[in-house]
């Protein structure tokens, strides 16, 4: 039984693209394998070894984690019908609380818990405003973002400024969660990666980046993706919660306490965003700094939309944004320039798909022209200006959302006002 199947006296909502495509594990593995081959081809012809280096992959995972956690937070909230653009403010609360808890108790895991609680408080405020008082979701989210920034600025001045090594805008260094590696594989993979062989060296670099020097916090964050899928799509609790984001009136008629489930979803959403903030202060930077989130809450929302409000797609979107961010931070001009060749190949593949499978000639011509333009830029230039590489993740966000827009389907009642006992 699905949320759209709840009886409302109205015809069921038709899902966009239903029955035309279903992502399976087999297709996912084939897609990942094809992407690795394309990266290897791009690296081989351009000489940009950082595309598949262990350092770039390790950095990409670390940069993807806070985006993914923010996106998971948005997913929980919006699956229950509450738009949450306050994720940025909840992340900000998590960055401060994570650093404070880690310093106060001299334990990084106390900081992890404190970061989740900090974000949870922001989520609770958002739930009270939107669920109990019916405040517009966007207005409430903007208010949470402003509150998060203002509260942490004040708290920093009364706590961190009094500590040795701290200040009005930053905390002293904080204890970090430990790193783990799969034993016995680091040196062999490093040796194979250094040979720069086609595909084999690329696989070695990717595996070494994924399996060595990984933070325990990162492992926790990755585990939350399948856990979210299981809870929301394989349990009665998840079914009821999702029904509140699809047909809340129908859910109420079947005995579901819609307010309770919306509260639970938004509070969990805040806690996940807070964990994303705590990751920034405990792992990414080893200290709290003002402005640390740098819009990652909004990029997390973009990753959630890219993933079509599903955990697996969201994780892929977060990794995409983390990867482009990692490349521009390491060897921006060279790596991003090489990435243009990969982008041209992918856009050309989309054009072929549109022409052969969907028989959309006009769209295929436009997409093909875009592929030619990107390839021309790659062929006629030697590097990408630094001013452009610094905004690569944000440009990637816009491009991905524009390409994915036609297959998206948000929860039917997402963002719509709901009052107990209302009828449609």
Automatic annotation (TrEMBL):
Keywords: Cell membrane, Membrane, Sugar transport, Transmembrane, Transmembrane helix, Transport. It comes from the Bacteria. The chain crosses the membrane at residues 23-45, 57-76, 82-103, 110-131, 137-155, 210-233, 263-285, 297-323, 335-356, 363-381. One of its GO terms (cellular component) is plasma membrane. The lineage of its organism: Bacteria, Bacillati, Actinomycetota, Actinomycetes, Streptosporangiales. It is a multi-pass membrane protein. The keyword Translocase does not apply. This is Simple sugar transport system permease protein. It comes from Planomonospora venezuelensis. Pfam families: BPD_transp_2. It is found in: Cell membrane. InterPro entries: ABC_transp_permease. The keyword Cell membrane applies. GO terms for molecular function: transmembrane transporter activity.
């Amino acid at each position: 039984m699905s949320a759209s199947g709840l009886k409302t006296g109205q015809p069921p909502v038709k899902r966009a693209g239903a029955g035309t495509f279903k992502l399976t594990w087999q297709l996912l593995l084939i897609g990942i394998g094809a992407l690795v081959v394309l990266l290897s081809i791009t690296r081989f012809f351009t000489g940009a070894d950082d595309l598949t280096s262990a350092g770039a992959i390790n950095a990409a995972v670390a940069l993807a984690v806070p985006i993914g956690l923010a996106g998971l937070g948005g997913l929980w909230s919006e699956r229950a019908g509450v738009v949450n653009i306050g994720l940025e403010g909840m992340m900000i609360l998590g960055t401060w609380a994570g650093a404070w808890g880690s310093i106060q108790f001299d334990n990084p895991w106390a900081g992890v818990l404190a970061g989740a609680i900090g974000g949870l408080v922001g989520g609770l405020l958002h739930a009270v405003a939107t669920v109990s008082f019916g405040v517009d979701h966007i207005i409430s989210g903007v208010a949470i973002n402003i509150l998060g920034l203002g509260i942490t600025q004040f708290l920093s001045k009364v706590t961190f400024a009094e500590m040795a090594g701290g200040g009005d805008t930053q905390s002293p260094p904080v204890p970090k969660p430990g790193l783990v590696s799969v034993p016995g594989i680091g040196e062999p993979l490093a040796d194979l990666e250094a040979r720069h062989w086609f595909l084999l060296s690329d696989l070695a670099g990717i595996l070494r980046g994924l399996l060595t020097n990984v933070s325990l916090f990162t492992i926790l964050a990755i585990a939350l993706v399948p856990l979210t899928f299981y809870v929301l799509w394989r349990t009665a609790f998840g079914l009821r919660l999702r029904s509140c984001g699809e047909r809340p009136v129908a859910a109420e008629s079947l005995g579901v306490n819609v307010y309770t489930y919306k509260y639970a979803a938004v509070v969990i959403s805040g806690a996940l965003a807070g964990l994303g903030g705590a990751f920034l202060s405990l792992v990414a930077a080893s200290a709290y700094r003002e402005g640390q989130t740098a819009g990652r809450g909004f990029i997390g929302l973009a990753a959630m939309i890219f993933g079509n409000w599903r955990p697996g797609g969201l994780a892929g979107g977060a990794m995409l944004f983390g990867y482009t961010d990692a490349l521009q931070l390491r060897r921006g001009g060279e790596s991003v320039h090489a990435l243009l060749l990969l982008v041209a190949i992918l856009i050309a593949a989309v054009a072929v798909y549109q022409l052969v499978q969907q028989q959309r000639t006009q769209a295929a011509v436009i997409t093909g022209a875009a592929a030619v333009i990107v390839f021309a830029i790659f062929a006629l230039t030697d590097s990408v200006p630094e001013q452009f590489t610094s905004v690569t993740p944000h440009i990637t966000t816009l491009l991905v959302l524009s390409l994915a827009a036609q297959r998206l389907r948000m929860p039917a009642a997402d963002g719509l006002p709901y009052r107990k006992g209302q009828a449609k």
